[in-house]
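FIELD: query
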Amino acid sequence: MLRFLTSGESHGQGLVAIVDGLPAGLVLDTAAISAEMHKRQQGYGRGNRQKIEKDEAEFFSGVRHGITTGAPVALLIKNRDFENWKFVMSPLPVDETNNEVQEQFAKKAIAKFRPGHADLAGTVKFHQKDIRDVLERASARETAARVAVGAVCRQLLRTLGVTVVSHVLAVGSVQLPREKIDSDLIDLSSLSSLVDSSDMFCADEETTEAMRVHVKAAWQDGDSVGGIVEVLVDGLPVGLGSYTQWDARLDGQLAQAVMSIQAMKAVEIGDGVQAATLPGSQVHDALFPNNGEANGLPFQRRTNHAGGIEGGMTNGSRLRVRAYMKPIPTMRKGLPSISFPELTADTAHYERSDVCAVPAASVVVKAMISFVLARAILEKFGSDAMCDLTAALDRYRLYCRAPFMAANSTGETEESPEMELE
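FIELD: result
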């Protein structure tokens, strides 16, 4: 089974990711992976740290001459800023009588909780005496490792004919008007080009400018803003996921993956929220016969309210997932809080932070969805090598293009004079 782990702290020496379960023979474009990591650092409203770090993933194992070997893949992302934290974040004991050490500890000390962050609950849970032991790992800096993993998975998906694109729908109260971008009809290549030309990763120039104005106002007020991102996926085969057990449902897996990202507070698939307010006749996607030319399937839909998933499985339509991000809890203006360990009234601690990280979040959400989809494909067509995986997926797509109701109990398609398989 495809899985990954990350390790590392925000201001530590770096971040580590180990990806297990990738098939052998996947050709990796390391430049494309670096480009995706660089994109996570972009976007109007980011903090000054992005000017220090230049994230690149170093492959340590599981890859030879740019091709996966089937062994676990290990990645390292170094933190350039560690030099300014080498005493505070040293994994080894330091000389606390040293003046330079004392100065750095005093400068980096944290004695106040930040409402909305993991500070308080984490300090209590792990019996910590220093809030920094919590915030360093809870920080969204960890998502740099996730983006590296997701970029690898996205390359696997691309090899299999699956396209994944993300974009920003809203920042604070500024939303992309629905009439400007139809998430079910827009060509994903066109959408990607529009997103790349916007520093808010929004596919509309006018809305991009309105978002910038909104973010700038929040910065001037010492505040922060959240927003909504959307991920669209084409080329998925019918039947990824399963209805047979609760944890096999693909929509549940996608929701968990999105909600695991720092600052995400809600996730929506298809018309999820709006669908709860409408009658069934306006929610469910009617089925019609199809000659197979439009989507390669013997059926078609003229709507996609379900967002590409029914009964916990992909249904052949475009996958549409939205993630809702809260405003970043670290703000210059600070909220009422309490000190630690005194627990007296105070104002929340401020450490350099972003005003808006919604564009960056769109890259992270895309990465996590890419991972879940790659895992689902490998679970259904499980193979140790890319050549076997590609062949298995091709056979299944051929079966889906044929009148699949004629398939026998073994899953093999029965050939007949009336059935032509190309």
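FIELD: remark
The first strand starts at residue 3 and ends at 8.
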